Fold:
Amino acid sequence: MFRNARTTLTAAAALCAASGAAMADEALRADALEWFEPIPMNPPALENNVVTDARVELGKQLFFDPRLSRSGVFSCNSCHNVGMGGVDALETSIGHGWQKGPRNSPTVYNAVFNIAQFWDGRAEDLAEQAKGPVQAGVEMASTPERVVTTLESMDGYVEGFAQAFPAEEEPISFENMARAIEAFEATLITPNSRFDQFLQGDDGALDEQEKRGLAAFMATGCASCHAGVNLGGQAYYPFGVVEKPGASVLPVGDRGRFQVTETAGDDYVFRAAPLRNIAITAPYFHSGTVWELEEAVAIMGVSQLGAELNEQQIADITAFLETLTGQIPDIEYPILPDRSAETPLPDEM
Ligand code: HEC
Ligand code: HEC
Structure:
């Protein structure tokens, strides 16, 4: 009798605790949905571009083709390795002539959801962005003319551009190269992370620590800058709202958006970095000098919030950030068009 009553009581208490936990999860989810959105399962529509299969396939070839660079060494994938979280895992990227660039390579995954491209947002969209690295001296060091000559020299590209831009008289152009790459990049999205599963109603997708981390991410103020579908990538803030990090993390020579707008208020202002897949895109910050996610979280606390987060908060927030790793798409390495006698030779190694 006594034993039975006890069992019933325990069961009732367990049931109560369980429904309490379910209510707490529901409240946490409601809060989170005020700030964040899951990544959609399908690529978003683009302005001034249509994501057709032919365009995506062509864009993929271009993304992997080192012949877009003057040396014949660097492709987009060299610095945005799609098998490695869309980054190069270097402090700052190495490009043409073994030059070390000034900034860390951000991931191409989910870049389509950012309001503008680059750490300082200087390119409006992915098509505008794609023209930058092809010409940049420290990246691929080519010219629009050289790229067009290269593409026109290969039958495979003549056909590929004709299929991808069927209505156009001159399908091969620098502009269309950029549009095809943009169409491919729009497919580089990573839905279905554990965080997104939680947002979509699965209480069990996050464990207790990860849920505490999510709550802390909102309560301490991280979410006021890192919100939306990419948890960032939407607006610009000084790196060091409260306290500027030291020069090893924030090199004095890189003044961020000031270089774009030349407005005093934009000194050391950068785009709040998108945090999707952050656990697999080390090293961190535009300087790429921080390799541990915990350390990046602690630096953010001090620099952006003026708060010394305690060890528990740092561990919890880091555990939460690790749930932002999504489903990486299957990308089959493309066969690239054969060169011809007209294809420009590699130059200036
Ligand atoms: C030599 C290395 C290198 C190569 C090659 C390269 N990139 Fe980048 N990429 C970078 C770096 C570094 C940045 C950040 C630069 C900055 O913010 O000033 C960047 C930024 C980007 C971004 C912006 C992402 C964001 O979140 O803002 C995209 C998209 C991108 N590159 C796509 C490409 C494409 C497409 C190609 C090929 C046409 C390419 N990259 C070639 C190093 C490279
Ligand atoms: C006032 C706006 C703001 C707040 C608040 C803020 N951040 Fe940031 N965050 C930024 C900016 C801007 C950057 C880009 C810094 C740079 O240029 O390297 C950044 C970068 C990061 C990075 C590095 C991303 C990468 O790809 O290298 C992480 C991680 C990060 N923030 C996490 C957090 C966490 C966790 C919090 C809360 C403790 C937080 N942030 C609070 C604006 C903010």
